[in-house]
Design a protein that fits this description.
By secondary structure, the chain is an all-alpha fold. 76% of the residues lie in helices and 1% in strands. A two-stranded antiparallel sheet has the order 1-2. The longest helix is centred in the first third of the chain and has 47 residues. The chain starts with 6 loop residues before the first strand and ends with a helix. The N terminus is likely disordered.
């Protein structure tokens, strides 16, 4: 029987490391840049809170849809074309914000956010599977690095966009400058992904064969069977609920503190501090959790930090806001990277594990996209941000209950094909 499962030739480790960092660091700046500039953008465009929430909602929803399409795109176009096309879409979406027509109205600004989100969708859904394939013996630290770069890019834009405006750039230019690092990453990504070639898979280790002797990975190269597994939906729902907290924080943390008298630069710095804490946690927690396949204790810790952070925003927003942002960032970053790792843990095949990760991200981001709008609606109903932040704390508590199901001893049974 001819195998439909394939692997790539190894790209030189340093080159692969640079590609992961430089591609991933460009996947969040367009999303975190508008928050600190929120009042200025709203004044210029006439957007209300619900309209402004679409700058987060639409791209996250498109990230979700793209996640579901990623396995098909990878099969038909390949990794090089998919990821490089993604980078071009992100660069185009950012650049269009500089044109008068691209930023004259809230609707067109939202459209550029959607263009960027469509670009991010394929890249962030394809990269985890490539990481498992390209770095099979260091998946946990590489996923930590991937997640850290993701959060680090968000930190850069949250800090530098308001600084750019303070130095004299228009708010449109302060958003558009994030096309530059995307274009710088593109040639390196093209070169590295060109080096990848398909070849037959190596023979799996004996323990892996024994643990999965009843699994026929090549019988179906599609993802339909994954959608028939309850575990896929549990991962999807848990990831989506957890990531809704990230979307809400990106959208509303800076505007929230600006209602407390903070400047755009100050609130942007707070969001940057939170993002740096996210990056540190996203890098550290998978490394700490790699000694055991059971990641539940670390997930519980990350979710507990989220509960503390969101409760702090809701109940004591002016009591040590920097420390609270660090606590919340540690929880958000660690939880994101651990979920990515847990999804990859479920299946030994990089192709199938990558597909499961894509489906989790796909449905998860669609679910997460609703959270910023829920926050805006709760603010309109109650007249205060406290309700929304406490809602996010409650969601994190619910996810704590869901992750108790992620016992690695049950992975073969949970993913068994009927």
């Amino acid at each position: 029987m001819t195998s439909t499962y394939s692997k790539t030739h190894r790209v030189p480790p340093l080159l692969w490391l640079l590609v992961v960092i430089l591609v991933t660091i460009n996947l969040r700046p367009f999303l975190t840049a508008p928050g600190p500039l929120g009042p200025t953008i709203q004044q210029a465009t006439g957007m209300d809170l619900r309209s402004f929430s679409w700058l987060t909602l639409l791209p996250m929803a498109l990230m979700g849809i793209g996640g579901w399409l990623a396995p098909t795109a990878l099969q038909h176009w390949g990794a090089r074309a998919s990821i490089c096309a993604s980078l071009l879409l992100i660069a185009l979406g950012c650049a269009l914000r500089l044109t008068p027509a691209g930023a004259a109205t809230g609707t067109l600004l939202i459209a550029t956010a959607g263009l960027c989100g469509a670009g991010v969708a394929l890249a962030q859904s394809i990269l985890p599977g490539l990481i498992k394939r390209q770095s099979p013996h260091s998946v946990a630290p590489m996923m930590g690095l991937y997640s850290a770069a993701l959060m680090g890019g968000g930190a850069l834009s949250a800090q530098l966009s308001p600084v750019a405006m303070q130095l004299g750039l228009s708010w449109q230019a302060s958003l558009a400058i994030w096309a530059i690092p995307v274009l710088l990453a593109l040639p390196l990504a093209w070169h590295a992904l060109t080096l990848m070639r398909e070849s037959a898979p190596p023979a799996p280790s004996a323990p892996l064969v024994q643990a999965n002797r009843d699994w026929d990975w090549d019988r179906d190269s599609g993802t339909g069977w994954l959608l028939r597994r309850g575990r896929t939906w549990l991962l999807l729902i848990s990831f989506g609920l957890m990531n809704g907290g990230y979307g809400s924080t990106v959208a509303w943390l800076a505007p929230f503190y600006q209602t407390h008298g903070w400047t755009a630069t100050q609130s942007g710095s707070l969001l940057a501090i939170l993002s740096i804490a996210q990056a540190a946690s996203a890098l550290a927690m998978p490394a700490l959790a790699c000694r055991s396949l059971d990641r539940r204790c670390w997930l519980m810790l990350a979710l507990l930090l989220q509960i503390i952070g969101f409760a702090g925003l809701g109940l004591w927003p002016d009591a040590m806001p920097t420390l609270n942002a660090i606590v919340l960032g540690l929880g958000l970053g660690g939880c994101f990277s651990l979920f990515m790792l847990v999804a990859l843990d479920h299946l030994p095949s990089p192709t199938q594990a990558g597909a499961l990760n894509s489906l989790m991200q796909g449905g998860g981001f669609i679910l997460a996209a609703i959270a910023p709008l829920i926050m805006a609606q709760l603010h309109q109903i109650s007249g205060t941000w406290m309700t929304g932040w406490l809602y996010q704390a409650g969601v994190a508590a619910l996810v704590c209950l869901l992750v108790t199901r992620f016992n690695p001893k049950g992975y073969p049974q949970a993913m068994q094909r009927l």
